[in-house]
Design brief:
The protein has about 280 residues and is of the alpha+beta class. It has one domain: Double-stranded beta-helix (4-Layer Sandwich). Helix content is about 20%, strand content about 30%. It contains 6 helices and 18 strands. Strand 4 and strand 5 form a beta hairpin. The longest helix is centred in the last third of the chain and has 15 residues. The chain is globular, with a radius of gyration of 18 Å. The chain binds succinic acid.
């Protein structure tokens, strides 16, 4: 196995590995270390089926069953289909998933740990996924801001309707999000400590963080704006231009991401996604 660091602050490509195969304990140990060291791992040319993706994902924690049943692979329900494909006028998978910067499942008490995306069909243009290094974004904050946010907790809301910074684009989305309005917001430290490395990261996101616990909006919103601007500075971003059969995995404890869109409705993109459960942020 060869691990080649990308040129920016994070991310690495892993070559000479076949994710269809049963991995040795030694290889797994190397991969787990690479995962926390590099935060985003990219594997090209993987001819894998959903059950291979599931088996590989399980090495990085308990795999969650997410989204509606009709958007999962029938005989492998932990694998979710993200696509703009339609069949008989109905979406085959989740449309417009991840269209704003976020860390997976941060509105949960125990958010996501690793997420895995595998590219099955790609549009002729667009469809990239962007990743942002939240360790680097935190490290580069002015000391004064670091002090200011040290003990603050961000409020994370699942419903898009509670967040004036985002729009609902998915068909039937308003009805879908209305049902989530009653789910209580979840507070998490705005400065998160990585449980393995001890490094700090900036744990807020434009998609999910709608306020700051115990702070009125007149003060909280400008501070959040400042942090959201910090998170998307070009030096902290890696933009993945997909090739068919790429598998990309990342660490939601220190990486934000978003689907950048930019393709036509009939230009099919199909991604298979798995995600593992993490622990409570501290
Ligand atoms: C996601 O946020 O899980 C999806 C990202 C993508 O489809 O590019």
């Amino acid at each position: 196995m060869k691990i080649q660091k990308l040129s920016g602050t994070f991310g690495a490509e892993v070559a000479d590995i076949d994710l269809k195969e049963q991995l040795s304990e030694d290889d797994l140990e190397v991969l787990k270390q690479a995962f926390v060291d590099h935060q985003v791992l990219i594997f090209h040319d993987q001819q894998i089926e959903p059950h291979h993706q599931l088996a590989f994902s399980k090495h990085f924690g308990p795999v969650q069953k997410l989204y509606a049943e009709e958007h999962r692979i029938p005989d492998c329900p932990e694998v979710v289909v993200l696509t703009n494909e339609m069949s008989d006028g109905k979406p085959v998978g989740v449309v417009a998933a991840g269209d704003y910067w976020h860390s997976d499942l941060s509105p949960n008490k125990t958010p996501g740990l690793a997420t895995f995306l595998y590219a099955r069909k790609l549009p002729s243009e667009g469809g990239d996924t962007e990743f942002a290094d939240m360790h680097a974004a935190y490290d580069a904050l002015p000391n004064e801001t670091k002090k200011q946010i040290e003990n603050l907790r961000g409020l994370h809301a699942i419903s898009k309707l509670k967040n004036p910074r985002v729009e609902v684009t998915r068909p039937g989305g308003t009805e879908y999000y209305k049902k989530q309005n009653s789910i209580p917001d979840q507070a998490h430290p705005m400065v998160r400590t990585h449980p393995v490395t001890g490094r700090k990261s900036l744990y807020v996101s434009l998609r999910f963080t709608i306020g700051i616990e115990g702070m009125d909006d007149a003060k909280a919103q400008p501070l959040l704006d400042e942090l959201f601007d910090q998170q998307v500075k070009s030096e902290f971003i890696y933009r993945h231009k997909w090739q068919i059969d790429d598998l990309v995995m990342w660490d939601n404890r220190s990486v934000n991401h978003r689907a950048s869109g930019g393709y036509d409705i009939g230009d099919i993109r199909r991604i298979h996604r798995t995600s593992t459960l993490g622990d409570e942020p501290f």
